[in-house]
Amino acid sequence: GDRAADLEERKVIAEDVFGADRVHVAENVADGIDRATALADAPQDPTLTRGIVAFGSIQLVGEVTALLRR
């Protein structure tokens, strides 16, 4: 469906806040979860704890939950 905000606009905002090296964009939820999981599972600093945060519509949250339960 249509996004509330353009993906590129969101990316630019996130890069301004978190830094370009910490922002990754995926075209769909499954690809995003795969990328986030790979990054969370491969910490560069073993003293850090990593996690995945997804926020958005209730539909997005439901899709993320279903993908993570697999």
Question: What report would you give on this structure?
Answer:
The longest helix has 13 residues, at 29-41. The protein has 70 residues and is mainly alpha-helical. The protein has helices at residues 7-18, 29-41, 58-68. It is built from three helices and no strands.
Percent strand equals under 5%
The beta-strand count equals 0
The largest β sheet comes out as: none
The percentage helix is 40-55%
Question: What is the tally of helical segments?
Answer: 3
Order of helices and strands: HHH
Shape: flat
Average predicted local confidence, pLDDT: 84
Assign the structural class, choosing from mainly alpha, mainly beta, alpha/beta, alpha+beta, or little secondary structure. mainly alpha
Rg for CA atoms: 13 Å
What's the end-to-end separation, in Å?
24 Å
What oligomeric state do these chains adopt? single chain
**Which residue ranges are poorly predicted, with pLDDT under 50 across at least 5 consecutive positions?**
none
In terms of topology, how is this protein built?
Elements (H helix, E strand, L loop, with lengths): L6 H12 L10 H13 L16 H11 L2
Structure described in brief:
The chain has 3 helices and no strands.
Features:
3 helices, 70 residues, single chain
